[in-house]
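Issue 218. Parser rejects a valid record. Input:
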Amino acid sequence: ASLTGASLTSSGVVTATASSGVATFAGLKLTGAVNNYTLVFTTTGGVSQTSQPISLTVGAATTVVFTGGSTTMPNDQVLTVQPIVEIRDVSGNVVTTSNTLVTLTASGTVIGGTVSMNAVAGVADFVGKGVKLTGSTGSKTITATITSPSTLTGTMTVAVTYGTATKLAVSAATVSATNHVIFSAQPTDRKSTRLN
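Output the parser choked on:
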């Protein structure tokens, strides 16, 4: 038996020896993109027969994948492109039957906004949820997690840059002075962004 566009596998082999004119297969499975497929059965003599169409549907969730989201963003600013998370099966098909809860967390920074939502037809679209990262600058990781039917995670990386200045800090200022004498320690100031 053979087909085009998907993988046909078996716990044994994809051949069977006919007995009294009947070849019985066991353990066959289809792996591939959601679509309609037909099996082609061919004898050693070259006689072929095509099966009725087989509708291949999505399998169980095996991966969580980010398909959208800003990869660079100023500190404490809502991501211009909010995260989009897909729940996929072993062949990369979106598991359209899934409405499981998707939760976002972050490492090395504080994540804000609405960070949990149920997937709709296998997709959690955080557009309008105000997801942002607040903390030090640098490369940060956002993780999407589902716990049903099993615990699966996916990650994306965001480079956090300096945000808008929110305060002015003064340092190295003198604590005493002599009349008409230049300060022994001159003041310096710097702008800083919000850090949680």
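Fixed in the parser; the record now loads. The chain has a mean pLDDT of 85.
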